[in-house]
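Usage example:
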Amino acid sequence: MTGPLTALPPGVVVLAAALAAGLAGERRRLAHLLGGGTTALVTGWIWVVPEGTHLTGRLFGFDAVFFNVDPFSWIVGLVFAFIGTAAVGYSWATGAKSKQTAYALTYVGSSLGAVFAGDWLTLIVWWELMAVTSTLLVWDYGGKAVRAGFRYALLHGIGGSLLLAAIVWHYAAVGSVLFSAADGIVGTVPQILAALGIGVNVGFIGLHAWLPDTYPRPHIAASVFLCVYTTKTGVYGMYRAFPDGHLWIAYMGGAMAIFGAGAALLQNDMRRLLSYHIQSQVGYMVAGVGIGGALAQAGAFGHVFNHILYKSLLFMTAGAIVYSTGEENLKYLGGLARKMPVTAGAFTVAALSIAGFPGFNGFVSKGIVISASHYTFVKGPLVVGDFYTLELLLLVGGVGTFLSFIKFGYYAFLHGPYEGDEVTPAPRAQRIPMLVVAGLCVAYGVFDGALFGLLPFDVTDGSVVGRVYTTYTVPHIAEGLVLAAAGVVGFAALKTPLSKVGRVPDVDAGYNPLVFYGARALVHGVTETYAAVDRAAVALADRGAAARADPAPLDRFRANIGGSIFILMVVLGGVLAWLGVV
Amino acid sequence: MTDTLVPLLVAGPLLGALLTVAAGLLDDRAPPVVAVLTLVGQVGLAGWMGSRALLDGPLSNGVGGFVAPYGIELVVDGVSAVIVSLVALVSLGVLFYAVDDDPGGTAFYTEYLLLVAGLSGMSVTGDVFNLYVFLEISGLATYALVASAGTGRSAVAALKYLLFGTVAASLYLLGVGYALVATGTLNMADLSVKLAQVGYDSPLVLASFGFIVVGLATKAALFPLHTWQPDAYNDAPDSVSAFISALVSTVAAYALFRLLYTVYTPAFFEAVPVARDALVVFATLSIVVGSVLAVVQSEVKRMLAYSSVSQYGLVVVGLAIGTPAAVFGAVVHLVGHAVMKGGLFVAAGTVDDLTGARTVDEYAGLADRFPVLGGASALLMLAMVGVPPAVGFAGKWYIALGAVRAGTWPVAVIIFGSTLLTLAYFTLLIERMFVAPASPSVRAATDGGERGLDRPDRPSRVALTLIVVAAVAAIALGLAVTNLQVALEPTLDTLLAT
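Running the assembly step on the lines above writes:
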């Protein structure tokens, strides 16, 4: 069954390219050509790879599948490899060092490895590697990114351990780690552990603080990589763990959609705003996975595909602005539409896509999820007219998305004249990946059939999905337009209060203490615990040092020879007594 | 043919020790050369015999023509093949570091080779009294090596270890005495049969078990019998710390394994379940308390020492649970711990030589100044925490799996919890090394200026190579663990058959 197309997992090939890129050192052109060329080849490879479980073997003595291709892993792997190529091109254009791109490629490779794993054990190994490589990518930039990377690593370490515990427990119940051996994770406790462990990766509310904390800090090209892989691998893992969905996960997805969009609205740092939108958009995917069933899952994975396109495009445009102006904060930008027309155009496409405006790809896939939340999910406690609870959550999240992107666009490109230093338009090399991805965002929006062809289930076939989905119907388009209109009206109403608060100089914390501190609570909790341990260590060390300086109290703290032998005798007596000898 | 050469595994280093003394009389530079040559031979011999034992089944030899049960039998089976090869390889590696770091005199190298002879003997002996003899040889050599730093602290640490270790060895000997009274034999294979005949619930058998386990647990430094160990590791010369941390307790834990499964056999545990429970409780306590004590240490070598207390707890838990997966995991973790901890002690010694830094705080900013040293150490620490695919993960995974299969859920929970504790103390160090601004001692070491007179400005090539090799080995072993499992399966199946 092993042919040339299935001789190796794609992740390993990308890791080899990463090594080569790292060795290229100062030869930046070579490194990026190698990296981009490899990911491009891998994209083509995945496009034609046959479905099935390839490369079965044993890992740590358990049956394992290293290269598992099914419709779900296929679509995620395909877009991972494709966007890897675009992001390497963008890295080249923004002057990223070979070393950074090499780290990024290890991150891409381990994500691909995780997606194509056919059993939980292989998945967790790649999953942990992904956490390590992404931390390296963040750390590589130095400065404030280092601290954030530390917090990031700690949280993902805990998440990975939870998932590992879930897997062990699952194995004890099922007797195999293969995906094919059971329907998702089995048992209540393992399910809770898995949901929390994966929840760290997808940014469940309360576990999401790492997202806006980490992603705005590293190099602009590193952010493009980061925004793609960790969260989407999480969505994929969530599907594997809960292939039939789960009520609470669906609602958590809806809550994430609103929370992320709301928090994003209050941000002025461009990449921070975009980071909250990752949480919001991943909310739609998590909702799709949680609803379960063919329609919702097709929607969730379609949204994974589309989201990766437009979100990386958004990070590229934000990066292009940072690159050209050196400014991260929307308060000090404005009027860039004339200076950077291509960037402005690409941003408009991406913003309309993420917000779900008719004619763009986000409209198609978000529509599937919302349709599934209406037709194939419980009504829930809140019903307004013809709209049900989860559907309402997702629609309100959509309004929030419109609002915050109108804000982003308005303050970056339209508002007033630009007052900073001289601005050169984005270099051509930066424009190429942006235009390619922007083209795809429009193409998949207009020719929705092409997108449907990639999805795991055919949403236009009544025998596959419970309710046939049609993108362009009058009510659906009307819905998109109403959301957009609500966004415009809302922004007009909120603009003054928002900008008033915005005039408080340099106090991002002043915006909304509730959201800000809510988001930070976890991070603070972790750092405070750490500090407490640190303090305890220092206090104990001081005491130890004092004891060493003064030999008398030493006897109290540390067993001396006589004390040691006394303990030995006590233990011996205890053991003998326990054994029933004396 | 191969069988008759088994005694060479012990006789080789012993002879080498004698030759070292002789060579030292002729020329001051000769002892290290003799020691290196001896250990190179030992590595070759152990590797060859180990591979034969793994491929063709156990080798055994009755020394001096007497046959078991009266004679002294040496046995190399799958597990002892792994341990004796580990002893040979690690002692050779650390010897290079010792030569490079603090070239001692003739006495140092003689003691070093005696220690190797004792440890190899413990690995291959098939006789419980012989095990005591080798235990004492390695113990005496260790006391002398710890004291060879020549400082007051090292003398006190050596004395403490001497008294404590001797009492522990005597307890072991008492246990052997009870077994002899009960059965009239000292041969391990013979004992396993005769003990069953005497009856496992006989007070003599139970007492022998209690004395032997407490004696060996002291040598393996399980809480609360660990008190000798942090002092010995911390105050010994750097190369000696690396050596004894990697091997001495490892071989003691191996001896415990040998006694539990060759002499007392799983049938004993079946008959006396409290024995298993006592070991499990003892070991889990060790895991938790060792980690907690490691977190509160300020000196790096001491932190690593307490970390060993916790890791040996993990190994003994695996041995006590006794399912095939758990015992295999214990062996893997024993080997993995030796490689990783040895590498980390070499790293700690190198840092001390470079900067004088000994505490966690003084490690600040180290990785920026010495990226390879810092990176490889961090890799070893992460491997120890159990990040896959390193060997630390493989060992813990099998032990946890064994615990889950045996249905001892609390133990499984403690194993996972201990991973977080391990993460806690190693992230403390990694955070200092990679993130915090450089400490005064690290700055002084790299910016010149007030650097101490005899401080080198970059890590020695030998030490750096050893640390990198240890890091690579930690990962390679993790990847090769499936092969090891296949190789050890026949041995473990024989031992665990009830």
